[in-house]
Amino acid sequence: MKRATWIRTLVVIGFVLLLEGLCRWGVIGRMTMIPPSEMADQLWKLLQSGRYNGHIFETLGNVAVAFVSAVVGGFVIGSILHSLPRARRAIDPFLATYYAIPFFAFYPLLVVIFGLNAAPIILIGFLFGVVAMIINTMNGLDRIPRVLIKTARVNGLGPLRTAWLIKLPSAAPQLFTGIKLAIAYSFIGVIAAEFIMSTSGLGYSIAYAFNNFDNRTMYALMLFIITLVTIVNAFFHVWERRIMARRGQ
Amino acid sequence: MRQFFDSLVFAAVLVAIWQGLHWFAGDIAIASPGVTAERAMVLLGSPSFWGHFRETFSALGYALAIAVLGGMTIGLVLGLHRLSGEVAEPILVSLYSLPKITLYPLILLIFGLGMSAKVAFGAIHGIIPVAIFTMGAVKTIAPVYFKTARVLQLSRRQLVATVVIPAAIPELVSGLRVGFSLTLLGVLIGEMFASQRGLGFLVMNAIGTLDVPTMMAVVLLLALVAVMISAGLLYLDRRLHHRVA
C-alpha cells in the first residue's frame, strides 16, 4: 500500500477514536452525540432485528431507480443535444445555472402533484442527477479526437460500430464523472426528500428518531447511510481507476 | 444575438409547458404562470416576505463567508503540501458526495434551532467543494512560478499572496459558484426541516395551508435570484478563464 493510503487510514481511525474519547469523557454530551462504538453496536442490533429492513430496501430501491433513470436519461438527452448545436447553445445557459436553483423547494410542489408516495422522491433524485449526466455526456462527446472519427470512416465502420468502438471509449472518462455525480446526487435527493416530507424510508426514519429524541436509533441509521455511501463511492472509484489503468493513463 | 433569441424561445417553451401542466393538473396542484407572477408581485410588496427574505439571505451570507474562507484555507494548505493533499483528497471527495442532510440532526443538537444551525448546515455544504476546487487550482499552478518565487526568495506569506492566490483565482471563482449553489441549498433544506423563519419555512408553511400560488411564487422568486447570482458568477468565471487562456 502507498504511504498516503496508510496515513489516510490512520487519520480516519484517529478521528473516530478522538470522537469516541470525547464522547466517553463527557466533553460531548450524551444528548448531543453517542460514542461511535455505541452507534455501531446499535446499528448491528437494528440490522439483526430487521426492524428497518423495509425502510432500507425502500430507500435503496428509490435511489436505484433515480440513479438509473438519471444516467440513461442524461446520456440520451446529452447525445441528442450534442447532435443539435443550435438547440444546445440555446439551452446551455439554463444547464449552467441549473444547480443554482434550490431543487428541494420544488419537492412540496411535486408532493401536491403526485401525492405522498415514492414518485416525487424518485423524481427529485432524478432531476438532481440528470443534468450532471447531460453536461458530462456532452463534454465527453466534445472531446473525442477528430482523427479517431476519421480513422473510423477510413475503415468503413458504420454509425453503430463507430459509437461502440470509438465514441463510447473516448468519452468514458467524462461519462464516469457523470455517473459518479449522478449516484451521489440521487442519494442526496432521495434521502433529503424523505427527510423533509414522507412516510417511510431511511431519511424519514432518521427524522422520526430525531423528533422522538431516540438518539441511539438516529445515530445508528446515520452511520448506516454514511458507511453505505462511502462503500458505493469507493467501489466506483476503484472501478474507474482500473479502467484508466488498463488504458495506461 | 440569434443565440439569445433561441434561449428566449426555450424559456417561452418552459413557460408553455408550465401552463400546459396547469391545464392538465388543475388549480389545486399547479398555479398558472400568470397567477404565480401576480402572487409574486404581491409578495414583493409585503414587508413580512422581506423579513423572511432577509433571514434566508443573511444566513446564506454568513454560511458562504465561512465556506469560502474555511474552504480556501483548507484548499491552500492541502494544495501546497503534497503529502497532506494526497492523504486528504479522497476523504474530501467522499465527504462531498455524502448526503449531508443525514448530519442535520447532529447540527440541530449542537446549535439548537435557529440561525446558527442554518448557517452551520449551509457552511458544511459549501466548504468542501470550495476546498476541492482550491486544492485543484493550487496543484495545477505551473511549477515555474514556484521556482521564480524561490529565486526571488519570497516568504511563505508572500508566496501565497502574490503567486498562489492570483494564479488560482479563476478556479476559485468556479469553486465559489459551486459552493454558492450548495450553500443556498443547505440553508433552504435547513429552513424546510426545522425553522420558523426564512423562505424555506415559507414554502413549507404554504404547503401546510395548501396555498399553492404562494408556494410557487416563493419558489419562482428564489429560483430567479439564485439564477441571477449564479449567472453573474458564471460570467466572471468565463471571463477570468478566458483571460488566463
Oligomeric form: heterodimer
The radius of gyration of chain A is 22 Å
Residue share in β-strands of chain A:
under 5%
Cα-to-Cα separation, first versus last residue of chain A: 20 Å
What order do the SSEs of chain B take from the amino end to the carboxyl end, as H and E? HHHHHHHHHH
Helicity level of chain A, as a percent range? over 70%
**CATH topology call of chain B:** MetI-like fold
The proportion of residues in beta strands of chain B is under 5%
What's the number of helices of chain A? 10
Q: CATH homologous superfamily of chain B - what is it? A: MetI-like
The helix content of chain B is: over 70%
Order of helices and strands of chain A: HHHHHHHHHH
Give the number of domains of chain B: 1
CATH architecture of chain A: Orthogonal Bundle
Tertiary shape of chain A: globular
Mean pLDDT of chain A: 85
- Write down the CATH class of chain A: Mainly Alpha
CATH homologous superfamily of chain A - what is it?
MetI-like
Structural class of chain A: mainly alpha
What does the radius of gyration of chain B come to?
Answer: 22 Å
